[in-house]
Amino acid sequence: MRKAVLLVSILALAGAASAQTFVWPQKWTVAKPSEVKRGGTLRAATISDFRTFNPFLTAEDDSVPDIISGDRGLVRRDPTTGDWIPYMAESWTISPNKLEITFKIRKGMKWSDGRPITADDWIMTWRIHTDKAVGSNSYDSFFIDGKPITLKKIDDYTIRFIYPKTDAEAFAVASFVPWPAHVFGPVYQRDGAEGIKKMWTLNEKPGNIVSGGPWLIESYRPGERLVLKRNPAFGEWNKDEAGNPLPYLDRYEIRIVKDVNAALAEFLAGNIDMFSPSTVDQISQIRQAIQQGRLDATIKLNASPVASSQFMVFNWNKASDPFKQSLFRSDKFRRAMSHLVNRQAVIDIVYGGFGTPMYTSVYPVLTQWINPKVPKYEYNPQQAAKLLAELGFTKKDREGYLVDSKGRRIEFNLATNAGNTQREQIAKLIVDEAKKVGVKVNFQAIDFNTLVGQLLSSGPDRPFDAIIIGLTGGGLDWPFGSNVVPCKGNLHMWNKSGQCLDPRETLLEKLYYQGRAELDFKKRVEIGYRMQEIEAELLPVIYIAGPNYHPAWNNRLGGEHPDAIISSIWGSREVELTFIKK
Amino acid sequence: MASYILKRILSLIPTFFGATFLAFLIIQMAPGDYLTQLELDPKVTPETIARLRAQFGLDRPFHEQYLLWMHNLLHLNLGYSFAYQAPVLEIVWPRVLNSMVLVVPSTILLFLIAVPVGVYGALRQYSLGDRVVSFLAYLGLAIPNFFLALILMYLVLQVYFRTGVMVFPVSGMTSSGFEQFSFWQKVVDVAWHAVLPIVVLTTSDIAGFSRIMRGQMLEALSQDYVRTARAKGLSERVVVYKHALRNAIIPIVANIGGILPTLISGAGLVEVVMAWPGITPLLLDAISQQDLYVVAGFLTMGLVLLMIGNLLSDLLLAWVDPRIRYE
Fold first, then answer.
1. Sign of the four-CA dihedral A354, A358, A363, A364
2. SS3 A2
3. Do A251 and A227 form a contact (C-beta atoms < 8 A)?
4. Residues 6+ apart with CB under 8 A from A349
5. Average of per-residue pLDDT across A202-221
6. CB–CB of A135 and B86 under 8 A?
7. Could you give phi then psi for residue A171, rounded to 5 degrees?
């Protein structure tokens, strides 16, 4: 795919060490190999307890399998460019029809129990993930539009991925983490999916968990603490530019702290090394502690926006109320509503000035993908009033709300999930602004599951008017959602009639599939730009704003990313390159 | 007596089925289920969600789910957690033990402090000491546990900032490097971590408990038999401790059985605020994720202990109060 990058990385590898070694580039950290100290413990905290050690059953973010494996496979991304580079693979070749990628697997890699890592491990991992009876969360990633991607072992160190159609996310599929076939294979053959489900529960002896990544489990205390220790087998083929084995740390301790205030208190007391404040209050407590010399730490304010979207969506399927339905289907109406969203006020009031406005479905942190020239219907109540007048809402009734010639009032219900105070505040801002121009918005905070049930209901008549919600989980290769853009998609939240209602929806769907199949990055970005222009015009959902990412860490840590690549996507550091200064 | 116990146990059976059915019903009545959260993930297809729902048995009608669960329950299998993909008991039990580290000492402390305080308040009614104790008791009653925990954490941090000494840990149950400690170091470490949460737990309970004790004692002291005892010329000591206190303490002793379920039900929000790996954070997670069988299984454990506890209370009552006879 991207030959130039491939060549450069192979050259870099050849220059630094033998082909068996993956050299972690100097540009990923601010520390030079000569400044680095070995040993020590990194102390982190996480908000939710771990659920399992089993990589085929895990469903949460930052699960134990993700952490011990480093969440990397044949290929990984270079945080400085976002490009895919060979990792557990040494190199790859792409077939002329672009439907097959053949990877040469790096030789000399070993599992923590000493067995070699070979093509069989990928094949077995793929088999188990795609067994329906196992119920793996990765199941869907091995299919493109319902057609399976297949893996073929050529020899012990060569593996081929065969795709049913060209796919921009081909490398993302190939980046899945392999697990030891010699551990899972025999059980799978003997007891099938049921056998796999019983393996590697939290009660498993840590010594029995085999890892191909940077960490081994040393101990786990339920609800309390996971302690990882360095996997020496990993350091044999992962080195820094001076040839030192990675990771530098001896241990990585993750405490489970369910309450954010408690985690903050531990960070302020110097008992945990990393914390990402999410509210103004937390930020100011950390800054105060630093300024008053009580805490020797670094905080990167507004390092980047977060990788999620937040929006207001109107329901196009309201057969029982034709007046509202025609209103919600009118792009003029939605434009007027966008003019009522005071994004700056949301940032100032809800996020204390630390937020980023949003205008399209692409998360603002994905700067390569953001089309800066899309039309923006910014906060402008006069313009909103004008648009509503064009729709026939010129008079006001006795209570001061706009009505049309038949005396019908513009009034709708707006809901969000109860307990999300930031979304509730956003909704209240919208209610106030709408009232000023004469639109009656009835706000209600409802239970999350009820809200999702309403949002994802389908058919000609759905039970809501408007909802404020957000999405996460988009990719870097093609940041549009396969469930969101196509008109039959489960998350095509504005219109779930099962068919496209606006010609622009049809066009977006067409462009979505075109972009997903386009392998040239530049061309894909162009398609993405075009899609965002249409989105901004059609406003199927009205994007609002989101908070920013502000990582903070204790200055006993070294080896963070250079400022340019500290973001909500790449985080503040590679744990492998992190070291303890004192 | 034996026939009474048998009768009681028989009457517990319908209670058990009714209560478990209600618990199951209420959890199921909440909108959505364990997989609703997954539906908002742009990468997961509706077919996958439907498949998982079938695997978890969540697509079956309510009564089938209940009967299946009951069937398992009668085979002493509390069910299977969706989130942990493991048997409920396996997940819940270590957390219950952690909670007991707080609950048992705080319950013992409660009796050791609240009973004397209550008696003192009754004997020196409206004295300065009684007023001070009453004031503190009401204060303890008025401050919610989690808030008191936050205040204590704040104070510990302030002391640390000013002196550099960590008097007590801010949160958690063990120190970093716990696994390498010797046995006695481990005991000391856990005890050191438990001090603040136990203080928080005990203060709020002392308030209510000592008020009850004080009221009971006052009532006993105003009875005719106390006057009679004094008229007989018994020493004040004997009057107070042998006649009044023995009667006043009956309802409290009788309630000891009721403590049984509280022993496993955890220390409440203190555990969340102070990152104590007890049962409360686990249960809150399970409720918010609708991890059905963890919630239902835990409620059942509590229910069984409550029933046993009530039975024990009644028996204890007969034992301490000669006026009560079960025939």
1. negative
2. coil
3. yes
4. A425, A429
5. 93
6. no
7. -75, -30
Give the pLDDT confidence score for residue B211 in this predicted structure: 86
Q: How far is B144 from chain A (nearest CA, A)?
A: 16
The Cα A221–Cα A203 span in angstroms is: 10
Rounded-to-integer distance, Cα A429 and Cα A437, Å:
13
Q: Which residues of A touch B43 (CB under 8 A)?
A: 140-141, 473, 481-483
- Distance between CA atoms of residues A313 and A156, nearest Å: 51
Q: What is the mean pLDDT of each run of 10 residues along chain B (327 residues)?
A: 82 88 86 80 78 84 87 84 85 89 90 88 86 84 88 90 87 85 92 92 84 89 88 86 84 78 81 89 87 88 86 81 72
A212 Rama sector, left if φ>0, alpha if ψ -120 to 50, beta otherwise: alpha
At residue B327, the pLDDT reads: 61
Q: Give the span between the Cα atoms of A257 and A259, in whole angstroms.
A: 6
- Calpha distance B278→B26 (Å, rounded): 24
Considering only the beta carbons, identify the residue of B154, B179, B278 that sits closest to A218. B179
d(CA A345, CA A416): 19
Residue B156 CB: number of other CB atoms within 10 A?
20
Which candidate, A575, A563, A561, places its Cα nearest to that of A238? A575
Helices and strands per DSSP (H, E), number in chain A: 16, 29
Structure tokens at A273: 């090394």
- DSSP letters spanning A244-285: -BS---SEEEEEE---HHHHHHHHHTTSSSEE---SHHHHHH
Partner-chain contact A59 B38, CB within 8 Å: yes
Q: Please, are residues A217 and A228 in contact by the beta-carbon 8 Å criterion? A: yes
CA distance A423 to A416: 7
φ/ψ of A480, rounded to 5, equals -100, 145
* B43: contact with A, CB 8 A cutoff: yes
- CA angle, A528 then A531 then A534, to 5°: 155
Q: What is the mean pLDDT of residues A236-247?
A: 92
Residue A271 contacts B where some CB pair is shorter than 8 Å: yes
Give how far the C-alpha of residue A580 lies from the chain's centroid of Cα atoms, to the nearest Å.
29
- Interface touch A262/B285, C-beta < 8 Å: no
Give Cα separations from A500 to A4, A322, A489 (angstroms).
41, 18, 11
Identify the pLDDT of residue A15: 40
Strand order of the β-sheet with A304-305 is A304-305, A545-549, A355-357
Burial of A292 (C-beta count, 10 Å sphere; 0-12/13-18/19+): exposed
pLDDT at A55: 94
Nearest-CA distance B30 → chain A (Å): 9
Stated pTM of the model: 0.84
Q: How far, in Å, are A8, A10, A83, A84, A256 from residue A4 at the CA level?
A: 6, 10, 11, 12, 43
Please give the average per-residue pLDDT across A48-54, as a whole number: 89
In chain A, what residues touch B42 (CB-CB under 8 Å)?
471, 473-474, 481-484, 491
For tokens 């603002």, the residue is A364
Return d(Cα A268, Cα B227) in angstroms, integer: 61
CA closest to B170 among chain A residues: A266
Write out pLDDT tens, residues A375-425.
Answer: 999 999 999 999 999 999 988 888 889 998 888 999 999 999 988 889 999
Q: In what order do the strands lie in the sheet with A150-155?
A: A89-94, A100-105, A158-162, A150-155
Q: What confidence tier does A75 reach under pLDDT thresholds 50, 70, 90?
A: very high
CA atoms of A431 and A421, how far apart (whole Å): 15
Q: What is the distance between the terminal CA atoms of chain B, rounded to a whole angstrom? A: 6
Paired residues of A314 in beta bridges: A466
Query: What gap in Å lies between CA A427 and CA A442, rounded to an integer?
Result: 10
